[in-house]
Write a structure and sequence with these properties.
The complex is a heterodimer of chains A (about 210) and B (about 700). Chain A has a single domain, classed as Glutaredoxin. In chain A, about 30% of the residues lie in helices and about 15% in strands. In chain A, the strands form 2 sheets. Chain A has a 7-stranded mixed sheet with strand order 2-1-5-4-3-7-8. A two-stranded antiparallel ribbon of chain A has the order 6-9. Chain A starts with a helix and ends with a strand. Chain B has an 8-stranded mixed sheet, with helices on one face. Classes of the chains: A alpha+beta (about 210), B alpha+beta (about 700). At the A-B interface, helix 1, strand 1, helix 5 and strand 9 of A face strand 10, strand 11, helix 6, helix 7 and helix 8 of B.
């Protein structure tokens, strides 16, 4: 009895091709979510600030950096600015030599989008005290950090390592009255870092408006 | 049955599209009001009132846990002395996606029940007046906090009575609240990801199932839950939350799903409290059904069954099996099958030995069955892997189509006698027309099945559509029926001598018949070329025809001696070099040339003052491929790279590579894609995982504002 090797080859090749194709489909699914872990190097960035200068994370190495995602039309952001709460922490932090960066990731045409002049005017109107306001209209920086809401806060230590991410405080509300008696996670984390302790509450769920990405 | 399904889907679409609440309620986006189920209440009675929110179309308010952003509605009461007012009871929430976020809330006209207890010493004849300061956040793409004062009053009477309008409406709202159900058990099990398993007696009849946690820290609202359905219930992935030690403490929330109500699907919810422990048995089977119109279809669609059909009854299954069997029979005479079978049938004419022939018949039968069942298994596995596949999927890759076309072309040439396989050349065994052994018969069956798949598209769409939407068992049954119908005629031919006698005796006519059979082969090849034209366009067809020409030359030249064979092989190799790209899905317009990535190469290029764009990719990463097609392959992007003098490096992670894994980890990633842009000086820029041309061009040209 002779086995047709050709038939064997043809059938075998076809079956193998189908199997290989199926295998390729099965293997799919390795994409990772954009998120950063505390204790990992914070994603590098290079974006323009409101004055037109290019700011990078590298230039602040050796200093603690606070990132504050903001949107001046968002009621949750307004709660913190209209009561002067955000400005107070900004002044406390920058007085301690900490770098405070506002980040605007609203796309053009979306709520909270500002150009350089607009962002400078907003800082003036709010009497805010950030080191700089970073303009991220493409959302590249926001998505690299996984910023979800305004406000969404990140603290990066002098070695460039992420130490805190999440809400600004423990009152997920837009009501001004909610500020009273709130525990400010950012202030607490900065105090922990200044004292050389591990950050006690290092990860919280951010609250506020969704970041208005493109 | 299928019609009923489509009707249900259509009805649902119609329901979502109808402008039910187009009226703008004054300045507020939510028209709020309070209503009592009772027109009068007796002293000491507990009764139900509702907060009604009539929400402007396109806007939503929030559940008790608002999800990624947002805030739940709050009421602050001023009630007459002695009245006790309970908290808001939350109806089953819906998932409201916004860009990359997922929120939990409500739209349309919503009733929130609240329990109120009158004091025992309330005086009949009095009227109790209630005032609530209501606060809610209402959002569309932007959010507005709204505050308003709401009131209602209810008279006290010796005997209470129902409000004719609001009594029934409130009773219905209360009846539909998510509540704990007898027989519903739940477990939270630690792991990465943690798993929530829930027993649900109606697990087989539900779709779009999702777990809504009361605790905001437990899970990331926008993380896929990959819901699975088993015989006894459902399971979810719990991931992305900031809570630590998930699986150590009880978890509370609502399992929400759609269930059929006549022709419609309606939302229902069950309140659960999951205790820590091992997952419950039989709750982790196939991906749970997800309908196309589900708000989170995009998030959960990959990894879940896309289509949803009602579960089949016995009659429906029998009908589908019958159709599948019939379809299998018809497949025997389809143009992409008949040539293979014709050749096989012709082999009987070569002289049939009955005992051996029967064995071959059985092997052919086994080959067909095995291949169909393997394909069914593959289909089930693919469905599990989240690929929405239709039949004929193995022909979706242009290179597979091309190889099959070339194969049929070569077989045609062989039948015409252009070349012969065997002898001194490679002694590769007999041709298709020669009598085959057992294994040969087996693979003839297999090959016939592979060749048959494109033909099934029009004929078998129904039965296979049903198979794909049903459980793996039914899928296997239907494929078995299909295989049976397909294998039967030729198997019978092997067995029944009477039928075999119908086959003509060998003779000179065989050569002619063989040559005639070449033409169905060419027809099959032509059909495949047409398929390829759809897949790879004119360039693909040009490449394939050039390859076919070169192959024809090789096959013809091979019999003139070794020198000609080498010349023919060279001709084919050269042709192949220039033509393979469109056939493996590579666009020949891809003008952006890449180099292999290494850290040293990046440093070297930056040392030359050049910017470097790094693309970490893998062949199995669909996102990567989509990005490469959408954002990295156009001439415009290539031009921008050239103008900015930016180098393009690729790190291919198709096979595990520790160096690349380390580089990914450096940027906090566990997988691809990862896109980095290193300006000549300064820090690397991490680009988003979903690229557009403008993001790439803006980044490399430094115009980031």
């Amino acid at each position: 009895m002779t086995i047709s090797r050709r038939n064997l080859l043809l059938g075998g090749a076809a079956v193998a091709a189908v199997a290989a194709l199926g295998g390729a489909f099965l293997l799919n699914g390795g994409e990772a979510l954009a998120s950063v872990e505390n204790g990992a190097q914070a994603p590098a960035f290079s974006v323009q600030d409101a004055s037109g200068a290019t700011r990078t994370l590298a230039e602040f190495r050796g200093r603690t950096v606070v990132l504050e995602w903001t949107n001046d039309g968002c009621p949750y952001v307004r709660k913190h600015y209209d009561a002067g709460n955000m400005q107070t922490i900004q002044r406390e932090a920058t007085a301690d030599g900490i770098v405070w960066l506002q980040v605007i990731s609203s796309a053009p045409g979306e709520q909270g989008h500002l150009d350089g002049a607009g962002a400078r005017a907003r800082v003036q109107t709010d009497n805010a005290a950030p080191t700089a306001t970073l303009l991220d209209p493409t959302g590249v920086m926001g998505q690299a950090y996984g910023a979800r809401t305004t406000p969404h806060m990140y603290i990066i230590d002098p070695q460039g390592v992420l130490r805190y991410q999440g809400a600004i405080d423990d009152r997920p509300s837009a009501r001004p009255a909610s500020l009273e008696g709130a525990t400010n996670y950012v202030r607490a984390a900065l105090a922990d870092l200044a004292a050389g302790r591990a950050v006690q509450t290092a990860s919280t769920v951010p609250y506020g408006c969704g970041v208005k990405y493109a | 049955m299928i019609r009923a399904f489509f009707f249900a889907v259509a009805a649902l679409f119609a329901a979502t599209l109808s402008p039910a609440f187009a009226q703008a309620p004054g300045v507020l986006n939510v028209d709020g009001s309070l209503h009592s189920a009772r027109a009068a209440v007796a002293p000491g009675e507990t009764f139900t009132i509702v907060l009604r929110q009539n929400i402007r179309e396109g806007w939503h308010t929030y559940w008790r846990n608002p999800g990624d952003s947002g805030e739940a509605t709050e009421l602050t009461w001023q009630a007459p002395a002695g009245f006790e007012i309970g908290g808001i009871q939350w109806p089953t929430p819906e998932a409201v996606p916004f860009a990359t976020l997922v929120n939990f809330g409500y739209h349309g006209d919503v009733l929130f029940p609240i329990e109120v207890t009158a004091p025992a010493n309330a005086r009949p004849g009095d009227v109790a007046n209630f005032t609530a300061d209501a606060y809610w956040l209402v959002c569309s793409d932007i959010c507005i906090p709204e505050e308003t004062t709401l009131t209602f009053s209810v008279p006290i009477a010796a005997v209470g009575r129902d409000d004719p309008e609001w009594g029934p409406r409130i009773a219905e709202a209360v009846a539909n609240l998510p509540r704990p159900q007898a027989g519903v058990d739940a477990r939270i099990s630690a792991g990465d990801p943690a798993r929530l398993s829930v027993t649900l007696s109606n697990a087989a009849d539900i779709r779009n199932v999702r777990f809504f946690s009361y605790d905001r820290d437990l899970l990331l609202a926008s993380a896929p839950q990959r819901p699975r359905v088993g015989a006894a219930g459902v399971s979810f992935d719990i991931s992305g939350g900031v809570a630590e030690n998930v699986g150590q403490a009880p978890v509370q929330g609502v399992v929400a799903y759609q269930v059929r109500d006549g022709a419609n699907w309606i939302w229902r919810g069950v309140e659960i409290e999951a205790q820590p422990g091992e997952p419950l048995a039989d709750t982790d089977g196939a991906p749970a059904p997800i309908s196309d119109n589900y708000a989170l279809a995009g998030l959960e669609g990959s990894g879940s069954a896309v289509a949803v059909a009602p579960p089949m009854d016995a009659a429906g299954i029998l009908l589908a099996l019958g159709l599948a069997f019939l379809g299998g029979l018809i497949l025997n005479i389809m143009p992409c099958v008949l040539p293979v079978l014709s050749v096989k049938a012709l082999s009987f004419a070569g002289g049939a030995h009955s005992a051996e022939t029967r064995t071959h018949g059985l092997f052919y039968f086994a080959g067909v069955m095995a291949t169909f069942l393997a394909l069914a298994g593959l289909l089930i596995a693919l469905r599990g892997a989240g690929e929405a596949v239709g039949w004929g999927f193995q022909l979706q890759a242009p290179w597979v189509t091309s190889l099959l076309a070339l194969l049929f072309f070569a077989i045609g040439l062989n039948l015409l006698g252009v070349f012969e396989i065997g002898g001194s050349l490679q002694n590769a065994g007999g041709t298709l027309t020669q009598r085959s052994g057992n294994a040969g018969s087996f693979f003839t069956g297999a090959l016939a099945v592979i060749a048959a798949t494109p033909c099934t598209a029009p004929f078998m769409a129904g039965a296979i559509g049903v198979a794909i939407t049903q459980s793996p068992l039914i899928t296997l049954l239907i494929f078995s029926a299909l295989a049976l119908g397909f294998a039967l005629p030729l198997t019978l031919l092997h067995f029944a001598p009477a039928l075999q006698r119908l086959i003509p005796k060998p003779g000179a006519w065989m050569d002619r018949a063989k040559q005639v059979l070449a033409f169905p082969m060419f027809v099959a090849a032509v059909w495949l070329v047409w398929v390829l034209a759809e897949q790879a366009g004119a360039n693909g067809v040009l490449s394939l025809l050039l390859l076919a020409t070169a192959l024809g030359f090789l096959l013809l030249a091979a019999r003139w001696g070794r020198a000609w064979l080498i010349a023919g092989a060279l001709a084919l190799a050269v042709t192949g070099t220039f033509t393979w790209r469109p056939l493996v899905g590579v666009q020949s317009e891809t003008v952006l040339a890449s180099e292999a990535w290494s850290d040293d190469r990046v440093a070297e290029l930056r040392g030359e003052g050049r910017g470097v764009f790094v693309n970490f990719t893998a062949a199995w990463c669909v996102t990567c491929k989509v990005n490469e097609l959408a954002a990295l392959s156009s001439p415009r992007v290539a031009q921008a790279f050239a103008e900015a003098n930016v180098a393009y490096l690729k790190g291919d992670w198709t096979n595990r590579d520790d160096t690349i894994a380390a580089a990914l980890a450096e940027y906090g990633r566990a997988g691809v894609p990862l896109y980095l842009y290193f300006p000549p000086e300064g820090e690397a820029v991490v680009l988003p995982q979903v690229l557009t041309e403008s993001i790439v061009i803006d980044t490399i040209s430094g115009a980031q504002t």
